[in-house]
Amino acid sequence: MNPLQERFNDQIYKIEVSDIRKFDERVSPIEGMLKLTLGAPDFNTPDHIKEAAIEAINNNESHYTGMAGAIQLRGAASEFLKKKYSLSYDPINEILVTIGATEAISASLLAILNPGDKILVPSPIFPGYEPLITLSQATPIFIDTSVNGFVLTPQMIEDTMIEHGSSVKAIILNYPTNPTGVTYTREEVKALAEVLKKHGLFVISDEIYSELTYDNEHVSIAEYLREQTILINGLSKSHAMTGWRIGFIFAPKELTAQIIKVHQYLVTCATSISQKAALAALTVGIDDALPMKKEYQKRRDYLYEELIQLGFEVARPNGAFYLFAKIPKEYIQNSMDFCVDLAEKNKLALIPGSAFGDAGEGYIRLSYAASMENLVEAVKRLKSYTLSHSKTV
């Protein structure tokens, strides 16, 4: 054993690679596997965005931008948010361009958390938040939303604050939500804002799926709670640009001034070529998400109805591109065991709900960021599995 192995940061031993990635890697080598696992759009990046990047390369625009990102891009991001969500942020000192939403989350958490702090985390939730909280030597306080159709309520926050009190510094919100696809109405957002204002918490609001909201308009909590909110967004989902790694932080200038220090030492700045592509995405391609959203909605409707017919209880998603389904009682109830069994026997890979926290156990997540042809085949394989293995193990 390498003698240095035991000399890492103590917190590193408390975190693991996410079960999403581990499970995906586990089943990927199986020949003929059909995967509805990762949250990556199956659409290609629009051509006009790619052409903007190629032009930037040919023009040798390969140098550092400012730490906060190119001012033209920050200006475009400001206009995008104003047009789409009626939000106003100064591109000079209230917007940061980040390496995807992931780095935005990392920089924000590192900037606000001290050892011993507590942060509220509605669950089930994307597993990328908890390890960053742990590395900051803070403690996540999970709020189980499965008892309320995966919708966080003001009363849930109040009850948790009574128990944990002044040591709670922040809350993470993610909506439309990964893994459930559930989102919030204007009335629900306003009610959450009122209770969070009362307690003076930082609100890290990850709204990366905002452009993929189906049945109602997306309402940012920053509309009601601007001074406390660190708003995170990006282009990975809205413009099918996962690999380009462009995200944004929008926050009051007093908060941005501190977060940019962390951002600088983590990454210096976002990739210059990707920033040029992002500028095209937010201007010429301001509505690029609309045709994708229309197709996702068709897929959602198809998959939702099929799963209901197969006996799965499903939270109807109003955004993102996931279905979160409760495993019927007659099948294997451990979600990891269920997904492994399904993958090995019927070559269909879904993500076990346990990957999203204890509140996700007993559920499975299906990503419909896949062609309709693949979704039809996936339903066929799932139906075959249910007919052949309809027993509790």
Q: Can you lay out the helices and strands and say which pair or pack?
A:
Elements: H1 19-27, E1 34-35, H2 47-58, H3 71-85, E2 95-98, H4 100-112, E3 118-123, H5 129-135, E4 139-144, H6 154-164, E5 168-174, H7 186-199, E6 202-206, E7 229-234, E8 247-250, H8 253-267, H9 272-282, H10 289-309, E9 313-315, E10 322-326, H11 335-346, E11 348-349, E12 351-352, E13 363-367, H12 372-388
Parallel strand pairs: 1-11, 3-4, 3-5, 5-6, 6-7
Antiparallel strand pairs: 2-8, 7-8, 9-10, 10-13, 12-13
Helix pairs in contact: 2-9, 3-9, 4-8, 6-7, 10-12
Give a quick precis of the structure.
The chain is of the alpha/beta class. Helix content is 40%, strand content 15%. The protein is built from twelve helices and 13 strands.
Architecture overview:
The chain is of the alpha/beta class and 393 residues long. The chain has 2 domains: 10-44 and 289-386, Alpha-Beta Complex (Aspartate Aminotransferase, domain 1); 47-285, Type I PLP-dependent aspartate aminotransferase-like (Major domain) (Aspartate Aminotransferase, domain 2). 40% of the residues lie in helices and 15% in strands. It has 12 helices and 13 strands. A 7-stranded mixed beta sheet has the order 2-8-7-6-5-3-4, with helices on both faces. A 4-stranded antiparallel beta sheet has the order 9-10-13-12. Helix 6 packs parallel to helix 7 (186-199). The longest helix is centred in the C-terminal third of the chain and has 21 residues, at 289-309. The model has no long low-confidence stretch (mean pLDDT 96).
